[in-house]
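seq/struct pair 1
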Amino acid sequence: MSDHFQPPMKKGGNSNPLQHLWEMVDQFFDERPLKKMMETLDEYFQKTLSHTYIPIDVRETKDEYTIIAHLPNVKRNQIQLEFIDNHLQLIIQNNEMIESIDEQSHFYQRRRMHQHIARVIPLPYAVSEKEVKASWKNGKLIIRLPQKRKYIDIE
C-alpha cells in the first residue's frame, strides 16, 4: 500500500482533477454584475487609501511661523480650518454625485462619494484665534502665525 493519498482521477485526457473547479471559479468571477462590483470595490479602495495624507511644510522666520498645506486637487469650498486650543484642525470634505449612462448596454450607474480627511497640526506656542491668518492660493493653504519666540543673537 502507498503512503501517499491520491484522489481518484477522471478517466479521459484531463490530468488535473481540480480543473473543473477552477473553471467554475473563473466563470463566477467573470460574470458581468460581479465583475463590475469588484471593479467598483477596487476603485473605492484605491481612492480611499491614496488621498488620506495631507502633506505640509513648516517655515519659521524671525517675523512669522508659516504652515503650508499642499492640496492640489481640492477646491476652496471643501476646506475647513478649526482652531482648538494650541492646535489647528484641517478638514477636507468632499460630497459629490457621479452619474454615468451607457445607452447601448442599457446600463445606468449612480454613485455618491463622501470623503472626509482631517489632520491636526500642533502649534509651537500659544496664540489666539485672532492671530491666525489663512489664505488659499494655487492649491496651497497658507497659515500664518506671528512669531512669539525670542531669538538671541550670538556674536
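seq/struct pair 2
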Amino acid sequence: MKLVVKFLGIFMLSLMVFACTNNDSPEAVGEKFTKAGYSVDMDTFMDLLYISDDMQKDGVDVKILLKSKFKSVLDESAKMAKKHGGIDKIVSSPAEYNTDKTKAQVQVTVSFKDGAQKKSSLDLIKIDGKWLVNMK
C-alpha cells in the first residue's frame, strides 16, 4: 500500500510540474507561430505577431492589411507542406536572449514527412510579459 501511495504522490507531483511549465517561452511561441503558418491558422498567426506603434497608421488597421498580405504566403506554405507529405514535427533551438531578456532569437526547424527540412530564424520580443514574433 505504501508503494501505491508513493507512486501516486510522485505521479501527482510530476503532473503539477508539467502543468506549471511555461508554454509562453520564446521556443514554444516560435513553434506555435510556425505551426499556425503552415496550417493557415490566421488568427493564431496574427495573435503571435507584434506590430510596433510606428507601423500603425492613422485610421488604418494594420493587422487587417497584414492579414490579407500574409494569406497568400501562408497558403503557399501549406501547399509546400502538402507537397512534402505534411509536417512531421516542428522543433525550436534554445533561445538566444539579449542582456535584459526582453528580446530573443530562435531557430525553428520544420521536418516534413518525406524527410525534407526547412529552417528559419525568428526574432521575438517580450511585451507585457508575453513573447511575440517581432516584425522589424
